[in-house]
Write a structure and sequence with these properties.
By secondary structure, this protein is an alpha+beta fold. It has 3 helices and 8 strands; from the N terminus they run ββααββββββα. Strands 1, 2, 3, 4, 5, 6, 7 and 8 form an 8-stranded antiparallel β-sheet that branches. Strand 7 and strand 8 form a beta hairpin. The radius of gyration is 14 Å and the shape is globular.
Length: 130
């Protein structure tokens, strides 16, 4: 399953956006209002839970300075990744798109597509406010 957000304009340079996203505690600022739990486990992992949903642990998988950050599921039960693509639009502006890749069976994909799409939309929208 593949979900991608439209580009979001962030009023910060690509280096500043990249540094914001590589500091995992900043993801709490991007989370939806219905967040129930957020905890940084170590410099490469954090967990979060939205009300009524199970806890999800994300782990940093890859990073390319100022261009890309990949977070993935820490568990192999539900393999997925969340990638932030950062493009410079000038010294004080960037465009960020988020993409989600998950390997789910058809039934699971049908159940999670709308909540994941909404979640990614919220992350993207909140990115524009950093």
């Amino acid at each position: 399953m593949h979900i991608e957000t439209p580009n979001t304009v962030v009023p910060k340079g690509n280096q500043e956006v990249y540094e914001f996203l590589t500091d995992l505690k900043n993801f709490e600022k991007l989370m939806p209002e219905n967040i129930d739990k957020f905890e940084v486990i170590n410099e490469d992992r954090f967990l979060f839970a939205l009300k009524g949903m199970p806890e999800i642990v994300l782990q940093r998988k890859e990073q390319i300075p100022y261009n890309k950050i990949v977070l993935g599921a820490a568990s192999d039960k539900l393999p997925f990744s969340l990638t932030a693509h950062i493009n410079s639009v000038g010294d004080t502006s960037s465009e960020v798109s988020l993409s989600f890749e998950g390997q789910f069976n058809a039934m699971m994909a049908m159940m999670v597509k709308k909540p994941i799409t909404n979640f990614m939309g919220t992350l993207s929208s909140n990115l524009s406010k950093i």
